[in-house]
Each structure stands twice: as structure tokens, then as C-alpha cells.
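In practice, a research group might receive sequence data for several interacting partners and want a quick structural hypothesis before committing to experiments. The following worked case mirrors that situation: the sequences arrive first, and a predicted assembly follows.
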Amino acid sequence: MEMLIALVIGVLTAGGVFLALRGQTFPVVLGLTLMSYAVNLFLFVMGRLAIGVPPVISEAATGYTDPLPQALVLTAIVISFGMTAFVIVLALKSRAELGNDHVDGLQHEEGRRE
Amino acid sequence: MMSLAHLPILPVVLPLIAGIVLLVLRNRSLAVQRGVSLVATLALVPLAILLAQTASDGTHLVYALGNWIAPYGIVLVVDRLAAWMLLTTSLLAVFALLYALRGIDIGGRHFHVLFQLQLFGLNGAFLTGDLFNLFVFFEILLLASYGLLLHGGGRQRVKAGLHYVVINLVGSTLFLFAVGTLYGVTGTLNMADLAVKLAATPAENAALVQSAGLLLFGVFALKAALLPLYLWLPAAYAHTSAPVAALFAIMTKVGAYSILRVYTLMFGDDAGPVTGLLDAWLAPLALVTLALGMLGVVASTALRQQAAYLVVASIGSLLLAFGLGSAGAIAAGLYYLPHTTFASAALFLLADTLGRARGPLADRFEPGPTMAGARVLGGLFFVVVIAIAGLPPLSGFLGKFMLLQAALDSPLLPWVWGVVLVTGLVGVIALARSGSLLFYRTHSAHDPAAQTPPTPAALSPIAGLLLLLIGMVIWAGPLSDYAAATARQLLQPQQYIGAVLGDTP
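A structural hypothesis for the assembly, expressed as C-alpha cells:
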């Protein structure tokens, strides 16, 4: 399972970086989202992977999973959600103000070529 | 001492409450909103002074949030460095806000709310003793800064804002990767506890910890605009509104503060496999940043852009001081930090007033009409430029002098002296050229319709910032003593660790 999770994080990050380096705002926003998914997953597994064990103290428990990364991930998800909403609005505003969806706000013909 | 017990949380909570109150009052008259915002900002100054006084005898004020003891809960820690940063921030914020009250705050919605939340994030970042909490405060101050940066709107601002937001989101992702790795290896996020655990890292995890440490450095360098991560700064700072650019003068210093805090506390001299992680990187990168920033100053085509490149160059000097790492050099950097913050802020505000007084050409370096109120503005420009270029008798000279003196016993001595002195000269020449272009190369009489003469309301915040700089010269003795004591305290992280983890009273 460790290998699977590691692969998933790696692929998400690679895809995120690739998309974030594109010239138009929409792929960039998608790339940032993928990167934030990757980092959330990464934070989550930093508490080590455990199946079927509780995070809080109970008498029937045979072992425990680390609850702290879950709290960290929750915080990180909320923040990245807010940031994504903001960057989408900003991307729309820049589309309206600059007349195209290129990150550098190029002229129409140049922007289309991307 | 009941009142002192909750003192450390006040600089964080006060702007937060003020921000929420302002949000509720958003439909009230402008005077009410401005009053609340101004009172809340002014109140931070005595608070910061009180905290600095408390911390000045070397005590660490530790505030456990929710009374959860470290390392299980989040702590706020006031030491000399944190109090010093708080004081700088609060003084800067007062003058930036006073300038904004001239009418820039009504160019868009919620200026005062965002302004207070920005202060909330800044103060929190300086006070927190928890790495993940530092991330959260970074996000708060960034989100507020996005709003402030775009305040008023406009083509250039949106374009620069998009770059700024995207690069900072990538930075936040990297920050989380670094924090996650550190947590995975050490099982803690409290900075004092991390320092203890990192020192005892087993050899098989050394590479992991080192990569996390360098990743953190990358993130802080991005916030501080260190080479090669400074490219976002000039456009963002040059195109936002003047009081926001002035307040942002402290934003890059948050990155510098984080580098200083994390690399003296967690990656200091007794950090086991991560000792001296940055020694090979920080000072050389800072030297190149200083040189390239100054080249940007020479190549600028407008005063606001020039001010933005001066911020980059000043970060070079600042991180050079921190990178040399001796007590003397860190003290020089700490004395230089408020100076460069106030001086850059004054230049941003002055560039805006000057642009309005010139009419349609604004602050571009092109021969234009004689500006309205040229004598007053010229006088202020002269003083600001002396301060920012580091010429005597103002505080920039003292800061640079202390830095050069501290470099005497460093192996980088020829590089430090060469780069600092040459860039200083280049800066003086570039600023003298800007001054003569703006004030002397005029081709037509002025046109009262398009030009706004400077008003006392616009000039007084700039004059106030300059008075602070003069104050830094008059009280240079006590201030440099405080900076030196701060540097010594930073180089003995055991005190901080003991205060947080409760090993010593």
C-alpha cells in the first residue's frame, strides 16, 4: 500500500507541476489544485498508514493511528479550498481585464497560439 | 501580574477582532470605519513597546494557547526578536494607514478589513512557536495581501496580482511538503521540540531532514524575494496602491525573519546532522541578490519600480548579514531591518505623492512639466534617498557600517566589502539620476488642471517615517545594544527551548 500511495502522490505532483507551468490560467489553476491534493495526501500519510485502528483512546483498541496529521490535513484542505476559490475568481477577472486567458495577458494572436 | 499573562496574545487577537468588527460595520459611515481601523492600529504600538520592554531583559514570554502545554499545544513566544519585529510592523502600519486615509481606502471594498487581517497574519507569524501554525499565519497574511494588492483594480494590477498569487500558492504547497516531512521524521511541529529532536536525528534520516530543511529555506527565500526567487516582487510592488506597497515593505522581512528564526533555532550549531545547513547558500545568494537588485534599480523606468528593486537590494543586505551568522553580523542585520522597512515605505509613499504632483506622466523617468510643490517634495526626496542609499548621517549608514565591521572576521570579507560598497555607490548614482530627471529636466510650465499639489495629509505620513529614521540615529546606542542582545539570544537557542519546554523556569 505504501508503494501505491507514493505513486499516487508522485503522479499527482508531476501532473500538477506540468499543468502549473502551462501558459493559460485554467491549466495553471488545475495544476495548483492537483498539487494541493498531492500535498494533502502526503501530510496524511506522514502519520504512517494504519488500517482499522482508532485515532482516539478507547478501551477496545489494539493500536492507534496518529490523529495529528488528520487535523493538519483538515486545516490544509480548508486553506487550499479557499485559495482555489480565490485564484479562480482572479483568473476570471484577469480574463475580463486583459481580454485573454494567458497568464501574461498577451495580445490576442499571441495568446491563441499557446 | 495577571495583566502580563495574556499580553502575548493581544497583538494577534486585537487586529482579528478589529477586522471582524470592521466587517460588521461595513455599511456604516466611512468616518466610523476609519476611526476603528486607526484606533486598532495605533493600539498595537504601545502593546509592542510593552512587549519589547518585557522581553528586553532576556525573558521569553511563553503563552500556551488553550493552556495546552508544549509540545502538545501551540505556543506563542515573545522574545527580543519577536518584539522587535512587532514594533517595526506596528509603527509601519500606522503610517501606511494614515496615508491610505487620504482616499485610497475607498478605491475598492473592505480595505480596512483586509488591512487588519494582514496585521493579524503578520503579528501571528512573528509570535508563533509552532511550524504548522507559522504556515497558517503565512496563509492568512498572504490571503489578506492578495486582496490588498488587487485593491482598486486595473489591468496592470490584476496581471501582477495573478503572478503573485500563483507563485505564493506553489510556495505554500512546498511549505506543506517540508512541514510534512519534518513531522514524519520527528513526530512534532513545535519549533523548540523540533530543535531537540532534530539534534538527535539518527543517521538514516539525515538526508530526509536536510531536504526538508532546504525545502523550507526555498519557501522562506521565496517570501523574502531572495535570488533567484525575486522576479515576482518588482511588478507586484510597483503596480499596487502606495500604502499597500508601503505595508508590503514588511512582507519580505517575514521571510527574512523566518529564515533567521528557523536557522538559528532548529538548524543552529548543535543540530546534529543538520548543523549549518545554510552556511554554503545564504551569504553568497544574498550577495548576488544585492548586486542584481541594484542593477534593477539602475535599469528602472519609474520611481515606484525603482523603490521595488531597492526592496530586493535591501533583502540582499539583510540576508547577507544573517548569512554571515556571527553575533555582530546578525545585530547589524537587525538594526538595518527597521531602517530599510521604514525607508522603502517612505519612498513608495513619496513616489505616489510625487506622481500625483506631476500629472499624467506620474512617476515615470521622462522629462515632464514642473511639478506642483516641487520644493517640499524635492526636500523630502533628498532625505529619503540619503536614508535609503545608506549615506551619513541617517540610519542606513549606521546599519551598513555595522555590517561591514562585522564582516571583518569572515572568510567572505573581500566579497562583502566589494559588493556592499560598489552597490552602495551604484545606488547613489541611480537615485541621483532619478532625482535630477524628476526635478530638473522639466520642459514646460505646470498645468494646474492635471496636477494635484501635495497636501499636508499626504506629506505627514512620509515625514513621520523619516522622523522614525532620525530617531533611529539619535537612539542608535540603545537600539544597537538591543539588536546585539537579540543576536546573542538567538545564538543561544537553549534558552528558548528551555522556556518553551519548561525545563528551566
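Before designing any experiment, note the following. The first strand of chain B starts at residue 61 and ends at 64. Chain B touches chain A through 28 residues (CB under 8 Å).
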